[in-house]
Amino acid sequence: VRAVAAAGGVVSIDTAKAAVAAAALEAGAEVVNDVTALGDPEMAGVVARAGAGVVLMHMQGTPRTMQDDPRYDDVVAEVAAFLALRATAAREAGIEAAAICVDPGIGFGKRLEHNLALLAGVPRLASLGYPVLVGASRKRFLAEILYGLITRDYRRAALVHYWAGYVPPHHPVETFAQALRAIGEPLHGRPAAEIS
Fold this sequence. Notes:
Elements: H1 2-6, E1 12-14, H2 18-26, E2 31-34, H3 43-50, E3 53-57, H4 75-92, E4 100-103, H5 112-120, H6 122-126, H7 140-146, H8 152-164, H9 173-188
Parallel strand pairs: 1-2, 2-3, 3-4
Helix pairs in contact: 2-3, 8-9
């Protein structure tokens, strides 16, 4: 951490432990990515005192149990409510609003339909007033959507295009179009042929 920070890099530390975060921040890290959204009662204070950024992620259950049987009545509403509460707690602990980012926790205690609903619900999450981080890379649900027929690079490229309107260069058109249609269909509930 210290070497990367000294070289001018911005370091984000993934940890749910306040002691680990404190050591990393002291060594030069600038962001704490916490999958428990400040579950450690000491974490908010550590982040606030360092003036660091924080990513607050939603997870149902624990890493060991999160995929056992995740259930929601309205996943977007429930995740948005949780993130709003945790962001409020962060601000009350002294973390600046501009230092907060929220993450719906794609793949963390979510079934395929939950992940798709959350991707489609990003604008709702953004309405909380904080940047939204979507960690969709290397997630099994993408392979489930695309039936394993398209490589990870094309899946990722299609998601980038879907959200940013950017067409990555050097991708064969038909394969890229197939990936884009396959991602768009479950998000919109329309046949792939209707999605251009």
